[in-house]
Amino acid sequence: MKRSAIILSLLIALIVSGTFSAKAVAEAIYPDPEKNITIVVPHAAGGGTDLIFRKLAEEMKKVSGVNFLVTNITGAGSATGTNEVINNEADGYMLLAAGTHTTAATMQGLTDGYKKLDYIAALNWDPFIVAVRKDKPWTSLQELVADAKSRPGKISLGNAGMGGATGVASVGLNLAFGKVFNVVPFNGGADLIASVLGGHCDVGIFSQSEVVANINSFRPLVILSEDHSPLASLASVPTLDEAGYPEITVPGGSFRSLMVKKGTPEVAKKWLADTAEKAFYSASFQKFMKDNGLIPAFYKLEAFAEYDKGIIADYEVILKEAGLYKMTN
User: Fold this and answer.
1) 65-105 tens-digit pLDDT
2) 231-270 as b/e, with b when 16 or more CB fall inside 10 Å?
3) In which band, very low, low, confident or very high, does the pLDDT at 229 lie, cut at 50, 70 and 90?
4) What are the pLDDT digits (tens) for 31-58?
5) Is this prediction's pTM over 0.85?
6) Which domains does the chain have, with CATH numbers?
7) Are 40 and 85 in contact (CB under 8 A)?
8) Would you say 162 and 188 are in contact if contact means Cβ atoms under 8 Å apart?
């Protein structure tokens, strides 16, 4: 029986049973093959988050036959894109490319964020790297810090937005070194990359995938994760401990996930989670993660919700210490 005939039969059954409602119809026919499913990336095109979700959308389309589209809605440190999802219908046709940027933006009071979102699938971690353009004079973090201390406020330290994890990391580093840097937020990773490469910003905190994409132009100084990069090309980049700063603790990477607005039908959430799982474990997406040094962390639905509790607890401590915590219950 063709899908259109199945849908017609379901609609007739709903009418006969007296349960004909928008929610009942959505649950009966989800996903509607005539509709696109949109993934809102709250950062500009070309950054690490954007690249990851474009690849995931491609694989989700392959494994499901349903059209997944990525749209970039930037602003307010990821809050503008997050609010687009929160303000839309809870029907399963719009997802948020979420992660630590969602956690940070919510805690800074920029959006209701995860308080009004439900969990679909946790995906991976992308380690952070402090990097400069190759023609800059600093060859190590110690050289950079020494120069910054000799002329406080003159060296700019860029991040992808104060509502994101690189924003929190940049504030944490600046506090640790006595506020010697001029911390500058940009409108997403792509904007930060262009500013550092264009000489408008001295130093940037990037996701590892962004450094990999620009490896011929960047000089990595330190990786902020506890371990070395899994990529051979970046394996020699020292950790904070190895760079001589074992006492400094800042967000070490960007976590990526999929979330939907609260109230989305359970059948839609389950279908999306199952589809994300198939796409995640596809040979193509696994190769993409390996090539970009992404650290797998797949959980879905309730398991993802439990996993996120740990991230939220860690961020509360960091943001409160930095004086950035503004979230109200």
Assistant:
1) 999 999 999 998 899 999 999 999 999 999 999 999 999 99
2) beebeebbbbeebebeebbbbbbbbbbbbbbeebbeebbe
3) very high
4) 998 899 999 999 989 888 999 999 999 9
5) no
6) 29-126+255-298 (3.40.190.150), 127-234 (3.40.190.10)
7) yes
8) no
Residue in this structure with the two tokens 């003159």, named with its chain if needed: 154
Q: What is the identity of the amino acid at 324?
A: L
Residue type, 66: V
Report residue 167 as tokens.
């924003």
